Amino acid sequence: MSKQFPTAEGSGDDPRTAELRxxxxxxxxxISSATAAAGRSEEPQLIVVSKFHPAADVARLxxxxxxxxxxxxxxxAAAKSAELAGLPVRxxxxxxxxxxKAKSVVKYASSVHSVDRPQxxxxxxxxxxxxxxxxxxxxxxxxxxxxxxxxxxxxxxxAAPSDVERLAESIATAxxxxxxxxxxxxxxxxxxxxxxxxxxxxxxxxxGLHPDAVGISAGMSQDLEAAVQFxxxxxxxxxxxxxxxxxxx
Length: 249
Ligand SMILES: *Cc1c(COP(=O)(O)O)cnc(C)c1O
Known about the structure:
Elements lengths: L14 H23 L7 E5 L5 H9 L4 E4 L2 H10 L6 E4 L8 H4 L3 E7 L2 H18 L4 E6 L18 H9 L4 E7 L8 H18 L5 E3 L6 H6 L4 E4 L1 H4 L7
Helix pairs in contact: 5-6
The structure holds pyridoxal-5'-phosphate.
Pyridoxal-5'-phosphate (PLP) binds next to strand 8 and helix 9.
């Protein structure tokens, strides 16, 4: 039999899959180098942020071995996770979240990285309890989003560092929630090293009270090296793997 399309033979990649394979490999290489440079023995976990990108890309990445995906809007995440039901992937909710969306989010999310107030923790606990009685879902991993703005303001979301202890207590004592650690986004225009050093200090304080809350969710496409340097356990990488997404304002 003659081969009409020799370039497509073997890998079976469509062009988008080939592109994703290459970009994923480049990011994994950066993570390895940063881990070695930091003298760490274990690489942080990669969460690919798939917001604004179609479910087909998530399916391609799952085929390439990615198991963890991040989304920041409930409507989009609910639709995508439903479309891909049956794929062996975990969904991480990483965006600002209104309490009235908790019920929807716990149907697909294995973790929420953006818990920034006790009221949201309460809503999540209630929603998880209901979901657990219906379907036996596991406990929900909760990261406390910490604001690293100098003014402690909530510009990009997050609790002030001084509120972390109280919030941690409300998560740790809620049935169905597991206090996983802290999360932050480096403030715009700031040095990511300074921001992530501050986050590492917040994490140390938290672990003093909650020794199992070891997670540090930090680091995006632009600043993953700094995040690895300061102990990130989870990286949330979007555009460097999936490409640019439409700007929303
Ligand atoms: C979009 C987003 C990311 C990924 O950002 P990239 O710069 O595309 O890597 C990470 N974390 C949060 C909270 C996000 O909203």
